[in-house]
Amino acid sequence: MKRALFQGRFQPPTIAHMCTVETILSEWRSAPEVKEMWDACISFHNLDHRVSCDISKRPYFDKEFNIKYPPEEFTIVRPTPKEGDANIDAVRGKIFSELLNREYTFVYPSFKLHNTNIVKMVLENGESWENFIPQGAYEVFLRIKGPTRIENAYRAKLK
After folding, report:
1. Which residues of 108-136 are buried (b: 16+ CB within 10 A; e: fewer)?
2. 3-state class (DSSP) for residue 6
3. H or E segment at 105?
4. Contact between residue 100 and residue 65 where contact means Cβ atoms under 8 Å apart
5. Is the pLDDT of residue 3 over 50?
6. Would the pLDDT of 113 be above 90?
7. In 3D, which of 100, 10, 102 has the Cα closest to residue 61?
8. Could you give all domains of the chain from N- to C-terminal order, each with its CATH number?
9. Residue 132 near residue 14, CB atoms below 8 Å
10. pLDDT tens, position by position, 52-72
11. Are 109 and 40 spatial neighbours (Cβ–Cβ below 8 Å)?
């Protein structure tokens, strides 16, 4: 049986990412801090027996990607791009399969919200991070001062 490989930066993992993982699981598996958030989230939701987090380079930069994640064992799974997504999200799905010489499978999560939108909703509209980051990951996110770090990066981009 093949395992699913869901790629992304996940900085931080949000409820939209979790919804995508749940969708992948229902239909079909950088940094140490990101891995810690994912591991905490996976554990909190009792998904340890079905999901694991493995940090890897972006596949098109990793010449060993198909060796580490052989096509006969792993299916690359991504959420289907939708209107309003960044152009790069749609382009990735089209060119990655060619660059890696393997197929991508797309899922249709019931909820999808890009991190860029979440950051704006929190920093510009006063929403709470707690509304967007699943339990488990949220506690780690606070401990590593994720809200302050994201706000600083966001403010620096505006300058």
Report:
1. ebeebbebeebbebbbeeeeebeebbbeb
2. strand
3. strand 104-107
4. yes
5. yes
6. no
7. 100
8. 3-158 (3.40.50.620)
9. yes
10. 988 777 777 788 899 999 999
11. no
The secondary structure of 28-94 as a DSSP string is ----HHHHHHHHHHHHHTT-TTT--------GGG-TTHHHHS-TTTEEEEEEPP-TTS-HHHHHHHH
- Residues 119-159: pLDDT tens digits? 899 999 999 999 999 999 999 999 988 899 888 888 877 77
Which letter, b or e, does each residue of 47-72 get, where b requires 16 or more Cβ atoms within 10 Å of its Cβ?
beeebebeeeeebeeeeebeeebeee
Name the residue among 66, 72, 54, 68 with its Cα closest to residue 7.
54
Report the predicted TM-score, pTM, of the whole model to 2 decimal places.
Answer: 0.75
